[in-house]
Specification:
The chain contains three helices and no strands. α1 packs antiparallel against α2 and α2 packs antiparallel against α3. It has one domain. By secondary structure, it is mainly α.
């Protein structure tokens, strides 16, 4: 019988977030440059990484670590765009 631990559930929630973000992107509910898309991906990957601390797999860890880094790039780009558009409105 399969025994799930709480950290496995955290990892499954992370997978659900990543898959939900991709599905919402594919059905044009989210844009790839939206904050929600990057947050779902980054938080989801972070949850998977957390679960890997209990049952480590190097290839999965590397994949998710880069997923977090790429998501952070998306978040920074979003914030930068919003700040620049705010500055342009004030001129």
């Amino acid at each position: 019988m399969l025994m799930l631990h709480w950290h496995d559930i955290v990892g499954f929630c992370g997978i659900a977030m990543i898959l939900a973000a991709y599905l919402l992107l594919q059905i044009d509910f989210l844009r790839s440059d939206s904050l929600v898309y990057s947050l779902l991906n980054g938080l989801g990957a972070s949850c998977v990484i957390f679960s890997l601390f209990f049952d480590f797999n190097l290839s999965a860890f590397l994949m998710e670590a880069f997923w977090v880094i790429i998501s952070l790039i998306g978040i920074v780009r979003y914030v930068t765009r919003k700040r620049q558009s705010g500055l342009e409105l004030r001129k």
